[in-house]
Backbone:
């Protein structure tokens, strides 16, 4: 008999005196962890199936459940950790590539947590955002170097197309297919209410969401799923996805189990087929090729929509960004290696790419040094967790930030990192009708609105504390930042001084 060497990572701890055998946990768990044993007249658990999504814990009416990390220990050492041993057992058994979802969980430095923000004292007084105007409106797109006036002295608007945001927070690309219809609907509704944008990801645009076009970024990735003339015309901006922080250098993969009828129509692929987008765009092998696609899209949209080029943060990101700025793109989106995903090979997610903080600082500096910073706006994403991360990103040179994992958490995601299985118990990363209905789109959109409004208020408070009254004045203002516990090299790359200096 073959022995299954893969052991449970979690234990389901059920308080027998509290459990009333209502079987709610059984109904709520799509991973089939809980069941009722007629002989024992009690609930039992198959812990090998538990992904620690907390659905049962939250739904149990008597608070009888607790999920704890298994403390079964291996005879590990600093080289052969429990994780490295268990993944070998897993791969020896399955012969497969390790798959995972969400962002890089490894303990690499999070530079946001090693950067401190300034505040005014005595001179350059702080500003009270409750009593004085504070501007969080942000315009994204190429800027012109000089102001032109007509013969009457009036300013001539010679600006290329711009995106106007009420707050520098946008929802990053998450495709319909990787997330549910209701999750997509929540993002679209929230972006519209907030005066910001959400992003279709590479899955096309469901016919029901065309009405949110003014608040939509339509994305074109290497697979060209769901791309049509109507799709290109539908959004306020067009994003070419060259790379993604969670899996730089490879394409996307939506398992066939998630390609249900509606997803297949939206992506324009057969139902049930795996949607695998190629690693490169097969028509882009140089900046000149990228330029052709940028201008094809501008042409197709009558030069009325900004074109964004999204790249992953990798070693030579500053040089790549310089090329992208020269390709005619209006906006560069940079995705750091802690950025989430619906599915990625674990080894790539955890080892490829660089932190967004270093990538952003390097790109902003390079574009300034080359005198082309105003040719493009910069959006950054990849694990933006709170409003202070956004303040720090803008002071390092970003114009706006993309959030995705934070948005999912606001909707109810419990970070079980199992999106790739398609059985999300919270109705987010799934297409199973019994699960998708668990997410109420209206309620989820209100939570997103609450989150972004709360963060925007905090941004105003922190800017006011610095004596700064607009995002524009904060952008690239690295004097407002100090590093703590960083090496000289790290400070040099971030372009900031150490605390105390
Ligand atoms: S939901 Fe709670 S009370 Fe109901 S069977 Fe499960 S553990 Fe027991
Ligand atoms: S979206 Fe769902 S499956 Fe993905 S991490 Fe969150 S709770 Fe888990």
Residues:
């Amino acid at each position: 008999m073959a022995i299954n060497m893969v052991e449970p990572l979690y234990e389901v701890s059920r308080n027998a005196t509290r459990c009333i055998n209502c079987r709610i946990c059984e109904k709520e768990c799509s991973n089939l962890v809980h069941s009722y044993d007629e002989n024992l007249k009690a609930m039992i658990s198959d812990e090998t199936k538990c992904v620690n999504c907390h659905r049962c814990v939250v739904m149990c009416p008597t608070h009888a459940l607790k999920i704890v990390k298994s403390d079964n220990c291996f005879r590990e050492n600093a080289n052969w950790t429990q994780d490295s041993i268990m993944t070998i057992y897993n791969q020896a058994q399955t012969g497969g590539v390790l798959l995972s979802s969400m962002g890089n969980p490894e303990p690499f430095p999070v530079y946001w947590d090693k950067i401190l923000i300034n505040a005014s004292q005595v001179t350059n007084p702080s500003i009270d955002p409750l009593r004085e105007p504070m501007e969080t409106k942000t315009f994204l797109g190429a800027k012109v170097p000089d102001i032109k006036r007509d013969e009457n002295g009036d300013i001539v608007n010679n600006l290329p197309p711009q995106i106007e945001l009420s707050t520098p927070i946008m929802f990053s690309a998450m495709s319909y297919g990787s997330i549910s219809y209701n999750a997509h609907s929540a993002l679209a509704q929230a972006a519209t209410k907030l005066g910001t944008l959400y992003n279709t990801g590479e899955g096309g645009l469901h016919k029901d969401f065309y009405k949110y076009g003014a608040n939509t970024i339509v994305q074109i990735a290497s697979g060209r799923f769901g791309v049509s003339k109507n799709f290109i015309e539908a959004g306020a901006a067009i994003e070419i996805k060259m790379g993604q922080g969670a899996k730089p250098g490879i394409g996307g993969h939506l398992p066939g189990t998630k390609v249900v009828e509606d997803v297949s129509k939206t992506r324009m692929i057969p139902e049930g087929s795996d949607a695998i987008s190629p690693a490169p765009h097969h028509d882009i092998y140089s900046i000149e090729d990228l330029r052709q696609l940028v201008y094809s899209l501008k042409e197709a949209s009558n030069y009325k929509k900004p074109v964004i080029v999204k790249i992953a943060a990798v070693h030579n990101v500053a040089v790549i960004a310089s090329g992208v700025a020269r390709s005619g793109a209006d906006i560069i989106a940079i995705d750091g290696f802690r950025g989430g995903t619906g599915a990625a090979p674990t080894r790539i997610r955890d080892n490829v790419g660089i932190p967004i903080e270093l990538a952003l600082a390097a790109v902003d500096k390079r574009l300034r040094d080359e005198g082309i910073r105003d040719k493009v706006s910069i959006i950054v994403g990849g694990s933006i967790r709170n409003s202070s991360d956004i303040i720090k990103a803008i002071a390092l040179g970003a114009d706006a930030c993309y959030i995705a994992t934070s948005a999912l958490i606001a909707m109810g995601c419990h970070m079980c990192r199992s999106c790739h299985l398609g059985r999300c118990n919270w109705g987010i990363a799934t297409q199973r009708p019994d699960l998708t209905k668990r997410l109420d789109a209206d309620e989820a959109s209100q939570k997103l609105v609450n989150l972004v409004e709360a963060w925007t208020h905090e941004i105003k408070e922190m800017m006011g504390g610095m004596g700064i009254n607009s995002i524009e004045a904060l952008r690239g203002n690295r004097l407002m930042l100090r590093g703590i516990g960083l090496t000289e090299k790290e400070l040099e790359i971030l372009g900031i001084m150490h605390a105390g200096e």
